[in-house]
Amino acid sequence: MSEVPQVEPFSPEDHQFMRRAMELAELAEQNGEVPVGAVLVKDGEIIAEGWNQSIGDHDATAHAEIQTLRKAGQVLQNYRLLDTTLYVTLEPCPMCAGALLHSRVKRIVFGAPDLKAGAAGTVLNLFEHQAAYHYADVEQGLLEDECRSQLQSFFKRRRKEKKNQRKATRFTSTHEAKKGQNNEG
Ligand SMILES: [Zn+2]
Q1: Which of 29, 33, 49, 65 is catalytic?
Q2: Residues in the chain where the model's pLDDT stays below 50
Q3: Which of 102, 120, 138, 145 is most exposed by smallest CB count within 10 Å?
C-alpha cells in the first residue's frame, strides 16, 4: 500500500505571519518576559501585533493575544474583529480564549500546545461549546517545533539563571558567616 502524502494545511502566508509572531515573542524575551507573540490579520495584512508584557506592565492580563486584540479594536474602531485571523505562538489560555470569542475572531492559528493552561483543546476546550454566540476555526501546529523550542530554551535558561543565583547567595552567606567567626576569634 502506498503512503498517503501529508497535505500541508497551512499556506505560505500562514507561515509568514507565524514567523512575525515568533519575532514578537523574541522581543518579549528580550524584555524579560515569557516569549509569546501574536499578530492579527485582516484581508491579508497585519492590522495589530502584540507580545507578552505581564511582568513589565504588572498586569496579568497583558498576554500577547489581549495586547493584540486591544490594538486591533482601536484600529478598526470596533471590538468585533470580524473576518480576522489571529496567529499566536502558544495555545491561548482560558482568559485569551474567552477574549478571542468575545472579539469574534474568525480563525485562530497557534504554534505550540500549552500543556499547563491550553484552552483550545490541550487542558480544556473553550471553543467546543462556542456555537451559541460565535464560531471560530481553531488550527494548531503551525511551526510547532520552532515555537516550542523558543519557549523551552527560555525556561531552560531561566532555570539555570535561578540555580546560579541560589549558588551565589549560598556562597555569600557562608562566606559572611566565616568572616563573622574570624572576627569573633
Ligand atoms: Zn492568555
Answers
A1: 65
A2: 1, 183-185
A3: 145
